[in-house]
Specification:
This protein has helices at residues 5-10, 15-22, 42-57, 60-66, 90-94, 96-117, 122-150, 187-193, 207-230, 236-253, 278-295, and strands at 35-37, 69-70, 81-82, 259-261. The protein is mainly alpha-helical. It has a two-stranded parallel ribbon with strand order 1-4. Strands 2-3 form a two-stranded antiparallel ribbon.
Length: 296
């Protein structure tokens, strides 16, 4: 039976995809990894930022840090200091973020090289580009390039209660000595939280594996954050906000590289790395004309 006109039209690409093609952009064949699982943005960020504010206003930020600091005790002749700073496993954990970053950069570059020379694995190149982009923006530009040099939040070691000279300040308050006070956000924490980024590469059919990867990455990053707290390098709120920063950058950059599967038929974003030829546009127009003629 001949298809009706409505049925033929319903099988055409969505209107937003047609507009995207008409603009002259289309990803080369095999460059996108298909639809990736859509993770929510607002409520996880709201939860983490809310938790960061909560630990500050309730005093938990300082209380958690106190549990790792040894105060002077004249009766036992104990000297004040960070008793866990050079102890294991904290010292070993503190050394791992740099190694994690090196491993992820190496894997990303390897994927890009393989994808470049192997058309069937071209998606590996896009995955590597995405991971490197998030790492360059989050721990690279935003943390070490902007916040560390401008925010000026004292580390626990700088705070008077823990043997320093500065006053404790909330993470949302900009300090007056950014040259010496570089406590916000956590560089080690941000590097560790980049381990979450590969979770955003999983397709919609493997969403549960993406969530498992995301959970494991958060656990590893939390261990790194706890080590930094134990050494007096950061407050809990520094670590929480580092995770929020990486998550936000990953969510924000993902539509630039992949199709994102969102319920409700929202706009699909594609990697804009190639211009569509006139022949491709003509082929699409001819296909639509044939479909309409058959329906008629």
């Amino acid at each position: 039976m001949n298809k009706t006109l409505d049925e033929a039209i319903s099988e055409e690409p969505a209107s937003h995809e047609v507009r995207e093609d008409r603009s002259g952009f289309r990803p080369p064949h095999g460059w996108d990894v298909g639809k990736v699982a859509d993770f929510p943005l607002l409520w996880p960020l709201s939860l983490v930022i809310g938790a960061s504010i909560l630990v500050v206003v309730t005093g938990a930020d300082l209380a958690i840090t106190r549990s790792f600091y040894q105060f002077a005790d004249p009766s036992t002749h104990l000297q004040p200091g960070w008793i866990h700073a050079d102890k294991q496993p904290w010292r070993w954990i503190d050394e791992q973020p740099v190694r994690l970053v090196i491993a992820m950069v190496a894997a990303s570059i390897a994927g890009m090289v393989i994808g470049y020379f192997s058309p069937s694995r071209r998606r590996w190149m896009v995955a590597g580009m995405f991971i490197l982009a998030v790492m360059a923006i989050a721990p690279g530009l935003m943390v070490n390039g902007i916040f560390k040099g401008a925010w000026g939040r004292p580390r626990p070691t700088h705070v008077a209660e823990f043997g320093g000279q500065a006053e404790y300040q909330p993470f949302w308050q900009i300090g007056n000595d950014p040259i010496n006070h570089k406590g916000f956000p956590s560089g080690h924490g941000t590097m560790a939280f980049t381990l979450m980024v590969p979770a955003f590469l999983f397709g919609t059919r493997h969403r549960k594996y993406a969530l498992l990867w995301l959970t494991g990455a958060i656990c590893v990053a939390s261990a790194v954050g706890l080590a930094r707290i134990a050494q007096g390098a950061h407050f809990t709120s520094d670590i929480l906000m580092s995770g929020a920063l990486v998550y936000a950058v990953a969510i924000g950059f993902r539509p630039l590289f992949f199709e994102v599967d969102r319920s409700g038929g929202s706009v699909i974003d594609r990697l804009r790395c190639g211009r569509q030829s006139k022949e491709d546009l003509n082929d699409q127009d001819q296909g639509k004309t044939i479909a309409i003629q058959k329906a008629a």
